[in-house]
Request: fold
Amino acid sequence: MKILVRGTNWIGDAVMSLPALKELRRIFPDAQITLHTRTWAEGLFSEAEFIDELVTFDKSKWKAKDVYDNSQFLRDDGYDLAVLLPNSFESALTSFLSKIPRRVGYNKDVRGLLLTDPIAVPEWKGRRHEVYYYLNLISEIERRMIGRDTVSQMLPDVSLKILDDKKAAAREQLRSAGVDVEKRIVALGVGSTNSAIKRWPVERFAKLADRLANELNASVILLGSPDEASTAAEVAEIAQTPVIDISGRTTLPEAIAILAVANLMISNDMGLAHVAAAVGIEVIALFGPTNPETTRPWGENVAVLQRNVACEFCRRNDRTVRHVCAKWVSVDEAFEAAIRMFEREALNTVEPLEIEVCL
Reply:
């Protein structure tokens, strides 16, 4: 059987879909599984053992010609099953025009008419973590096509394996950038591409960087995409101690490998925080207006810091308004959390560290 999986659109979502992809491979061990995803995702999935092939595409805006070209290209490969992880109408239309005989996805925005197996959005959507949202699709596929459901009994596995040669190259890249790799390495994720209001104030990141370097003798690096480079530059300029700013200067595979050799990431709600959790390092995620119960990086190596404010979770992106949640967690609280994460790392404990802030 040939299975085409339409991948997600953001780095964080791609990481949260890893358990679903691994379960799809488990229940169809002999199938050829192709991941149809955006070009940037090649850096995340190029060495994944649970897929057989990557077919990538670039898309900045929805265009009818792009849909037609993609569908004709995929049609020639003769897939038996399409699994649509995103909720977009375009992904359903592409699979429909590709004439894939069985098409499974969530029944949203009237696209159910284009699917052979439209799956109802679970009533718990918005209350459970997104890893279960993607896993639920695979559970439904197993139930409908095999007549059983073992997927829902499995623990989600978001782990990403990074090869030793990639880690060695990452250490050399950090040395070349001026990082003392003999010290503990703390990566700061100061941006957030899809929402400015998710960002902890740059002044607090700068003060935190100073304390990490001066009081914990850590090497501090700033990591992010080209879109986040200007925010990182602000932090580097304000900080009183040298921080190594490599935001926008790495490819995604390089950033993933760098995180794999770091000890801790302290980050806004952004894609690389999910990657850091997946490669197994300690993560402190700073949340503002979004719900960590559904979108936090997944894993016992993750702690969330968030203040409880009077307003509901929102996704407002108004740069001109200083929302209450922008004040968030203090530098002291973030620094104390870093100390406790380092202590946990030294003890090699596997128990989750409960350091959430709710004030």
Notes: The longest strand covers residues 32-38. DSSP finds 13 helices and twelve strands in the chain.
